Amino acid sequence: MSKQTQRLSRRLEAIPRNVKQAVTPALITAGRDLSVSMRLLAPEDTGALKDSIHVTTPGESTPPYSQPGGSTVARENQVIVTAGNTDVRYAHLVEHGTAEAAAQPFFWPAYRLKKKALGSRIKRAMRKAVKEAK
Predict the structure, then answer these.
(1) What Pfam families does the record point to (predicted)?
(2) For tag attachment on the chain, is the N or C end more exposed, with fewer CB atoms within 10 Å?
């Protein structure tokens, strides 16, 4: 483990349990907000790609074949937004394009568009939880 990772792990372990629990709803709301933006930007075609965008909350497993991440269990205070599932295995091909098809980015543009607002929402929830814990 790198020094930065060790330092982050120590800092995360020092956060009181009730503060971690208070932040989870903000994380889930942020994940849902991001998924809505991704659905708005995803190409329509059959709608299967839009329907495959999924928010995985702590303790749940991401859908098999989802991008990015495959089948992963979300840890405590982790929300994962993915596109794709067993029926939709082409999310990355739509996002990045192929030799025969032009890219139709939806995943990363939505992330870049919402990153600052979602980060602010989560930080506000953390500050509020810390103040209430004192």
Answers:
(1) HK97-gp10_like
(2) C
Q: Has residue 126 been placed in a domain?
A: yes
Report the predicted TM-score, pTM, of the whole model to 2 decimal places: 0.82
Does any domain span residue 45? yes
φ/ψ (deg, to 5) at 70: 60, -145
d(C-alpha 40, C-alpha 35), whole Å: 9
* Whole-number Cα distances in Å, 29 to 7, 12, 23, 32, 50: 28, 21, 10, 5, 18
Residue type, 50: K
CA angle 64, 65, 66 (to 5 degrees): 95
Q: Which amino acid is at 49?
A: L
**pLDDT tens-digit series, residues 79-89:** 999 999 989 99
Cβ(110)–Cβ(82) below 8 Å = no
Phi-psi region at 54: left, alpha or beta (left = phi > 0; alpha = psi -120 to 50): beta
Please determine, for residue 14, whether its predicted confidence score (pLDDT) is greater than 70.
Answer: yes
